[in-house]
Amino acid sequence: MPNKTDIFWERNIETKKVPNDEVNFDIIIVGGGPAGSATACYAANEGFKVLLLEKEEFPRDKVCGDAVGGKALKHLEELNMLKSLEKSPHFIFDSVIFSNTKEEKVKVEIKDSEATGYVYPRINFDWIIFNEAKNRVEKNGGFVIQKFRVNNLIIDNEDNNRIIGVKGKNGANEKEFYAPITIGAGGVNCPVAKTIISEINGEEFIKKEHWSTSFREYWKGVDGVDYEKGAIEFHYVDGVIPGYFWIFPVGDNTCNVGLGITLKDFKNKEMKLKELQKYIIDEKFASRFKNAKLVKDSGKAWQLPLGSPRKDKVKLRRMFGNGCLLVGDSGSLVDPFTGEGIGNALLSAKIAVKHFKENRNNFNLECGENYQKEIWEILGKELTNSFKIQNYTRKKWLINWFIGKAQRKPELQKILSESLTSKEAQRQLTSPWILFKNLVF
């Protein structure tokens, strides 16, 4: 974690006085993480009066792998936030290391300089984005409320279950607010998502093959790491496959260390996540952690709804209701292979505001379906390929064979490198013929 000197993201974020009940807004956004804060910024930039609601109070931590890829950085630059973020400590990754159960390794360089990624501790990353959203929202006449827990959506049952506002508590005070559209950005347990998916549409909220579970710790002094710029690491280890173990430097002699696996696959494991992580560190990576020190109370588990394709018409889990849209993790947009979700969260924020701007006078179910279709048109190939790669990693022999070959074969290294930034290269990586040709010949 960063040095404890002049850390502005540990300050409280002061907001305007909480408005009275029944105030009307153009947009209500539930959740102040990257997806919700970016939505608020895009909406305020369009001149909309925004109400941004966050259940916690900043500063606050968020359990995550902390990696922020090139896609996210491009959106942050578009929102004029990247320079502010670059002023806070972070790690720059320009390559990725993959290893298999035989401890064979391949290092993949990220060739596209624009796609170079960062690793940020979420405590400062989220603070900066939320603070910027607060400034833009309030400047445009809107409000930001922290420690506000949404308990219910206000639904007009006579108008095809149209969502017209929210009810919730700020401390002991119950309040309700109204808007033509409500954006669910509350993450994995977003109350807006649960309402439109399960309560209104009667669909299953958690499908284990489309969810992952993860565990993260911070460790100081891990050997073999450059803490300013270099590689992030994915390791396929016996006991975790079809999941993976990661080591992501975050700067200040500290690494984000964790593991991720789908809920469907995890149910067959004998150990709990924390035990599994300890086993990996003690038995598989003991030499690299012999001088390392665990940061106290940094071990935490969380779940992620994956953007793996479904077999229904809208391909992804439902992302809309009548008068309502879901963005980011609430919309189940996490990459099935890497677990990275911030880039897709920021993209969905931008598209959500665009669709509302085009249909602000009557944002109905058809508008919401068009939003989800556009999301799929943009992300469909990428998420489908990522899902295929995730399925390949279920086969230990294939992982070992592929990484072993990639060690010695420049053609495979090139495909791996380009796959980190190119949809066409991802397609090659998931083509059985191309894989067969490169692996066998």
From TrEMBL:
InterPro entries reported for this sequence: FAD-bd, FAD/NAD-bd_sf, Geranylgeranyl_Rdtase_fam, Geranylgeranyl_reductase, GGR_cat
SUPFAM superfamilies per UniProt: FAD/NAD(P)-binding domain (SSF51905)
Gene3D superfamilies recorded: FAD/NAD(P)-binding domain
Digeranylgeranylglycerophospholipid reductase catalytic domain boundaries: 225-294
Residue span(s) of domain FAD-binding: 26-217
Gene Ontology MF term list: FAD binding; oxidoreductase activity, acting on the CH-CH group of donors, NAD or NADP as acceptor
Protein name: Uncharacterized protein
